[in-house]
Specification:
With about 90 residues, the chain is mainly alpha-helical. The chain has helices spanning about 25-35, 40-45, 50-55, 65-70.
Length: about 90
Amino acid sequence: MHSGAPAGTPTRPFDIANDIRTPEGAAAYLTEVLAEGDEVEFRRALGRESLYKALSEAGNPGLSTVLGVLRALDLRMTVAVARPEPEAA
């Protein structure tokens, strides 16, 4: 299988943790995860044991829980139109 890198080119494994060390990086990552609707990855990205419990199938998190988590991470949730209308020509 070809990796796309020329033979002999040194590579290293991709680690998302390197990209989410800043609030901006974390916000961009979580925004993408939310846009994709990937609840499992969203929970994994937040990473704390109590969050797993609160956001598990057995848990019943309220919006205040999610907002509190985001606030603690110095992030905020935004809402966007899922299917924007095409621009008029």
